[in-house]
Specification:
The protein is an alpha+beta fold. It has 4 domains: 92 residues, conserved putative lor/sdh protein from methanococcus maripaludis s2 fold, CATH 2.40.420; 91 residues, Elongation Factor Tu (Ef-tu), domain 3; 45 residues, no CATH class; 62 residues, Helix hairpin bin (Helix Hairpins, Orthogonal Bundle). The chain is 24% helix and 41% strand. It is built from 3 helices and 19 strands. The radius of gyration is 42 Å and the shape is elongated. The mean pLDDT is 85.
């Protein structure tokens, strides 16, 4: 019995040893295969860096404000008797936009005019009597004062009637009217906004470090997001002498000729101030930059050698310092030299020393003045 058990144990030990040997050989084969395995190259696009001429410019985001803009309101209370404009229409300076009911004031004006005429006749009669020394000077002075009071009353009612006609203080575009025919309005109630769009202000801010480069009279180029193909020109007309204590920015105001009424009050626009300076820079598309909190970097394509001694095209990660931005292009101030081949798309899937395959049949568009198509 013990002999049979010993034989069984010997057989089990042999089987376990054989299984262990087979598994050992499998692990050795897997290790050898892993050592010989190489990651397939990633498909990327690239460009060879070269120095290009850039015109110095300061870019900012601004907001549009009217040179002349106001919300017209009722000066005196009354009932709307007539509306003389259409919402959104262009109106001329002095045009009567809204007329309030003035029947009561006109009746009071007629009574005041009659009182004035009577006072004038009385004053003329008393003046003739004064010349013949029939009455005293004091009596005539009382009658003359009554005539002047009657004239003042007429002027007062005429002014009240005039104040019940809301006129356009300047030519421009009327907004959406906020009153209806027959509506009672109180003093100060809004009637309609009025904006002059021939010229507009564009207000924007620049950091205090750049304010020394700006001067009144410098040219600016403005583009609205809704019509980026159309650019309007203007000039800086005012620079705030006070620096914002919270942001350390300086407010700048430019006046722009609004051709075609492209810009409207309250719109956000892109502003570029040309500094007139030309300098050589190395610029890359923004798609070539690997933006990261620990530092921005690019991937430079170089010839490398693998563990087997074979050469291949790989990438080296290079940290860079960025400068100004113009459109899709970013200035590289440090880290890249002219003549180096840099990956321009596909950087998100790369790592240091990774193999790449360059395919420039389709490259990302990049321009200092892009014009994206409206979809």
């Amino acid at each position: 019995m013990s002999k049979r058990m010993m034989q069984m144990l010997a057989v089990v030990v042999v089987v376990i040893a054989l299984l262990g040997f087979v598994k050992f050989r499998q692990i050795q084969g897997a290790i050898a295969a892993n050592k010989s395995f190489s990651q397939p190259p990633e498909a990327v696009t690239s460009m060879v860096t070269a120095a290009s001429e850039w015109t110095g410019a300061i870019e900012a985001v601004g907001s549009v404000a009217p040179v002349q803009g106001v919300t017209l309101s009722a000066d005196l209370p009354g009932v709307v008797d007539r509306i003389g404009f259409q919402s959104g229409a262009r109106v001329r300076q002095g045009a009567a936009l809204v007329v309030l009911d003035t029947r009561q004031e006109r009746a009071q004006l007629a009574a005041a005019q009659a009182q004035r005429d009577l006072a004038k006749v009385t004053a003329d009669r008393q003046h003739k009597l004064l010349e013949r020394e029939v009455i005293a000077q004091a009596d005539y002075d009382i009658v003359a004062a009554q005539f002047k009071q009657a004239e003042a009353a007429v002027l007062q009612f005429e002014a009240s009637i005039g104040r019940k006609t809301i006129r356009a203080p300047f030519s421009g575009f009327a907004g959406i009217r906020q009153v209806n025919l027959g509506q009672y309005v109180n003093s100060g109630d809004p009637i309609v906004p009025l904006q002059s769009l021939d010229r507009v202000y564009v207000n924007f801010s620049v950091p205090q470090q750049q304010i020394a480069d700006l001067h009144v009279g410098d040219g600016v180029t403005v583009a609205a997001d809704s019509s980026s193909r159309q650019r309007l020109n203007g000039r800086i007309t005012a620079i705030n002498p006070v620096v914002d204590g919270a942001t350390r920015n300086v407010q700048v105001q430019a006046t722009v000729q609004n051709r075609g009424d492209v810009l409207r009050a309250g719109m956000y626009v892109s502003v570029a101030v040309s500094l007139g300076e030309h300098h050589a820079v190395i610029a890359l598309p923004s798609s070539a930059i690997n933006f990261a909190p620990y530092g921005n970097s690019v991937f430079i394509i170089e010839n490398m050698k693998g563990p087997d001694g074979k050469s291949f095209k790989g990438v080296r990660q290079q940290f860079v310092k960025l400068g100004a931005t113009q459109g899709d292009m970013v200035e590289i101030t440090e880290g890249v030299k002219p003549g180096q081949e840099v990956v321009t798309s596909g950087v998100f899937k790369l790592r240091a020393n990774a193999a790449v395959q360059v395919n420039n049949s389709v490259t990302p568009s990049a321009s200092t003045h892009p014009h994206p198509d409206e979809n």
